[in-house]
């Protein structure tokens, strides 16, 4: 079946501009996660959505970052007034809940470059 | 706070030369330890989930094991196509409705297998 998809695959933006990154999870997966992978850093948790519950935003690095999930499926991560330190690969993952399996499945990522 | 340390940072092997990667962890109640493989420019690909000490999982030339403090990824007779970054992650105990399912990743081990 189709895996997690993300768009765009690459995004170059100027410092100070806003960007939107999109994630389409695996069909039927109710849990959705955003992570960030910076050069020389491990994967860093950003935000988590589970069904209709309030999202866990504890990993968002600043109030310039926000995310939403519409209809329990597609998610958008928005970064306002981008800074050079926001340059990274942004990864989305989804997980099937209500089963014993806990693994998350990742998309290919969006590589963001802030110039 | 959950922590994951992987070693070595990089490992170079000759084809057929077996070896092991280490993942040491501290977690407030382990709900799962996960191994992923990541190829350059791609998202992490799920390999294994281990839930309790003593558990082992195998897939082709890979075998993952788990103790209360660490996990090993054993690679038997590796081939050049096994070259990738191997990531270890843990999921800690559910804590009051937040960060449920959040993964904490190590920095990864870059494996290079020469023909």
Descriptive overview:
The complex is a heterodimer of chains A (115) and B (115). With 115 residues, chain A is mainly beta. Chain A has no helices and 10 strands. Chain A has strands at 5-7, 10-13, 19-24, 31-37, 43-50, 65-69, 75-79, 88-95, 105-106, 110-114. In chain A, strands 2, 4, 5, 8, 9 and 10 form a 6-stranded mixed beta sheet that branches. The N and C termini of chain A lie far apart (37 Å). Chain B is built from no helices and 11 strands. At the A-B interface, strand 4, strand 5, strand 8 and strand 9 of A face strand 4, strand 5, strand 9 and strand 10 of B.
Question: What's this model, at a glance?
Answer:
Chain A has 115 residues and is mainly β. Chain A contains no helices and ten strands. The N and C termini of chain A lie far apart (37 Å).
Lay out the secondary structure.
The complex is a heterodimer of chains A (115) and B (115).
Chain A: E1 5-7, E2 10-13, E3 19-24, E4 31-37, E5 43-50, E6 65-69, E7 75-79, E8 88-95, E9 105-106, E10 110-114
Parallel strand pairs in A: 2-10
Antiparallel strand pairs in A: 1-3, 3-7, 4-5, 4-8, 6-7, 8-9, 8-10
Chain B: E1 3-7, E2 10-14, E3 19-26, E4 30-38, E5 45-50, E6 56-59, E7 62-66, E8 70-75, E9 84-92, E10 104-105, E11 109-114
Parallel strand pairs in B: 2-11
Antiparallel strand pairs in B: 1-3, 3-8, 4-5, 4-9, 6-7, 7-8, 9-10, 9-11
Estimate what percentage of residues of chain A fall within beta strands.
Answer: over 45%
What string, H for helix and E for strand, traces the elements of chain A in order?
EEEEEEEEEE
Identify the most extensive interface between protein chains. Answer: A-B, 27 and 27 residues
Helix/strand/pairing class of chain A, anyone?
Answer: mainly beta
Ends apart, CA distance between termini of chain B: 41 Å
Q: Describe the largest sheet of chain B.
A: 6 strands, mixed
What's the total helix number of chain A?
0
The proportion of residues forming helix of chain A, as a percent range, comes to under 10%
The tally of strands of chain A reads 10
Mean pLDDT of chain A: 93
Give me the count of strands of chain B: 11
- In DSSP terms (H or I, runs of 4 or more residues), the helix count of chain B works out at 0
Helix content of chain B: under 10%
Q: How far do the termini of chain A sit from each other?
A: 37 Å
What's the main sheet of chain A like?
Answer: 6 strands, mixed
